[in-house]
Amino acid sequence: MRVLYSVSRIPAWIDCARILEEQLDWSPAYWITLPENHKEVGMAFPELTLHPTHDLNRGLPAVGMETQGNGCLSLSNIIAASRYEAIAMDMMDRVDLGRVFSYQERQRLYHKLLIYWLNVIDTKELKIAIFNVPPHSIGEYVAYTAFQISGLKTRIFRPTPVANLHIVTDRIEKLPGTLKRAYERRLVEENFSCGKQIEDDFSRLENIPDDYRPWYVEETSNREDRWRQTLDKLKDAVANGKTVQEPLKIGEPVCETIVKDMESGVQIIKKDILRRKRKPTHDNLVRQVFKVPGRPISGPLMDKWDFVLYRDWAYLQKLELLKHYERLSQVADLDEKYVYFAMHYQPERTTCPDGGRFNNQFLAISLLSQTLPSDWILYVKEHPSQFNFHSMGELGRWSGYYDEIAQLPNVRFILLDTPSVELIGKAQAVATITGAVGWEALIKGIPVLCFGAAWYGLCRGAFIIEEYQQALAAFQSVLKGLRPEPNEVRAFAGALEDIGKVVFTNPSLEQVVDLGEPLHEALANLVIQFEEEIQNLDD
Question: In the list 146, 151, 270, 304, which could disulfide-bond 117, CB 3.0-4.6 Å?
Answer without folding.
Answer: 146
